[in-house]
Amino acid sequence: MTDTLEKQAFLAALAERKEWVRAYLEQDRRKVLFVPEDIHDGVFSYLKASGKVLRPCVLYFSCGAVGGEEQAATPAAVAVELFHTWTIVHDDIMDRDALRRGAPTVHESFRRRALATEAFDEKEAAHYGLSIGIMTGEVQHGWATALLSELYDADADNGEMVIELIRYLETEVLLALVGGQALDIQYAKAPMDSLDEATVLDMFWRKTGALYAFAGAAGAMIGLNTPDRTHPLVRAISSFTGECGVAFQLQDDILGLTADEATLGKPVCSDLREGKRTLLLVHTYHKASAAERRFLLDVVGKPEATDEQIAEVRDLILARGGLDYARTLMERRVAGAIRELDAIPDSSYKVYLVNWAEFLIGRSF
């Protein structure tokens, strides 16, 4: 996005579609069912934060790129945002993270809320926070599925498409995502020698790429009013968004090592303390000397590691080219993804899709 006017138009398009999502969430009649107050507040906690809403936006753009009416896809766009949100609520529990976007995570927020009542001791408050976090995710997950059903239009005869979208999300995407998260946890304890680029990238696709692929496919299927996921335009856009999802995860890992902490909204280098097997770390391990490997194994994944040790690991990743390698791979994958769009007719929406891909890997948060 070298052209300033083009960049401004893209950012305005993102902001407009983010507002569509917010407005739909605000007016949904089911909100009155979210009781007690802690469940309501948990469900809307991350939704009210200033998230990027990248998945709904690319779903809208994908719908427009195949000639569809964007706003008809709003229930699906909101569903994708809700689906993504429940996964990060649960991820924060599994990762034991206390911060998300610079604010307390859901389970941490309700731990604090419970402590403030003086009815809970520390252990009970922590359990209460985890319980609200789990239930929050369950509500968001169910709400997402219910929203997809609202796509049904008897006049459009789109029932088969709606059923296919629900089946796709709740089987293939869900199982890919849960499998990727399980692998992420397992890999943190796996011998570093057992991991390579292919295993890490496969985990990234499951954790992140699968839902992005769904967002692109869903937008195209709605725009074309087809249940056929093998349609050439659906397949091209889904491949594009899925590959960009892997690049998104690579950029997340890069930012986790290099970003400003205030901008990132969580501690920089926390992945190293948690033992996350990022591509940067795995690449560095395989390029390191025997002594450097021993040092990495002594420090990575150790919560008690000192700031100085973590800084040494970061310096080693830079010295062994882990950061540069991840950036190069990320840019190469996005370039390949953009070539998938050759099958899509030229339009302002196609430009938005390219802008969106460039935004993913150029962001600082």
Characteristics of this structure?
365 residues; 2 strands; 73% helix
SSE layout:
Layout (H helix, E strand, L loop, with lengths): L3 H24 L9 H12 L5 H12 L8 H21 L4 E2 L2 E2 L1 H11 L5 H28 L9 H29 L9 H28 L7 H27 L2 H4 L5 H5 L4 H9 L2 H10 L7 H13 L2 H18 L8 H15 L3
Antiparallel strand pairs: 1-2
The Cα radius of gyration reads 21 Å
Mean pLDDT: 94
- The rough form would be described as globular
Total number of beta strands: 2
Number of helices: 16
Largest sheet: 2 strands, antiparallel
| H and E order | HHHHEEHHHHHHHHHHHH
Are there runs of 5+ residues with pLDDT below 50, and where? none
- Briefly note the structural class of the backbone: mainly alpha
**Terminal Cα span:** 18 Å
Q: What helical percentage do the residues reach? A: over 70%
Strand order of the largest sheet: 1-2
Strand fraction band?
Answer: under 5%
